[in-house]
Specification:
This protein is of the alpha+beta class and 183 residues long. It has a single domain, classed as Gcn5-related N-acetyltransferase (GNAT) (Aminopeptidase, 3-Layer(aba) Sandwich). Helix content is 28%, strand content 35%. The chain has an eight-stranded mixed β-sheet, covered by helices on one side. Strand 5, helix 4 and strand 6 form a beta-alpha-beta unit. The longest helix has 16 residues. The relative contact order is 0.15.
């Protein structure tokens, strides 16, 4: 039996939690991303090399690319007062295997250590399991990102892989931990 998947544009819904609104990207988010993308502290645990300032048109193009992605959902994270403080994505969704990956960036450092990443990941994980039929979600965490390791563990993700020397940061090879959670 052959399986055919007809891809369509995935439209990110709005997810509300007790303190957050996880909503589709807006054009005005692009300026915040420029700030977060060039902040060494925010970028310290991102898989890409340190970013340089981009023209706003490149950021706007990224929004369009996310909106047309056939294998992912992309959101901005807002406080219940309407302040945009980060982004979260559920990507590489595989409908046959019912798997996905999750990534989060809390770009506003005033919200670090306040449970925002936990609340965000928990909400998107719950949405993926209850509304999308996803049965396994994966995440990667760089070895020095101890806070994010704790977040995933608190939610119920388990470490299921340790990849030695998997990335380069500041010219040095670093380890990456792989986490997963089942429905």
């Amino acid at each position: 039996m052959r399986h055919f998947f007809y891809h369509t544009k995935m439209i990110s819904p709005t997810i509300k939690t007790g303190n957050l609104i996880i909503r589709p990207f807006k054009t005005e988010d692009a300026e915040l991303w420029q700030t977060w993308d060039t902040d060494p502290e925010v970028q310290a645990h991102m898989p890409e090399p340190q970013n340089t300032h981009q023209d706003i048109s490149e950021q706007l193009e990224y929004i369009k690319e996310c909106e047309s992605d056939e294998e992912g959902y992309y959101w901005s994270v807002e406080t219940d007062r309407g302040e945009t403080i980060g982004t979260v994505s559920l990507f590489q969704i595989h409908p046959y295997h019912k798997t996905a990956e999750i990534g989060v960036v809390i770009g506003n450092k005033n919200y670090w250590g306040k449970g925002v990443a936990t609340e965000t990941i928990r909400a998107v994980t719950d949405y993926a399991f209850s509304k999308l039929g996803i049965e396994r979600i994966s995440a990667e965490v760089e070895e020095s990102n101890l806070a994010m390791k704790k977040v995933f563990e608190k939610i119920g993700f388990r470490e299921d892989g340790h990849f030695r020397a998997a990335r380069i940061k500041a010219g040095k090879r670093i380890d990456v931990f792989h986490f997963g959670i089942l429905k």
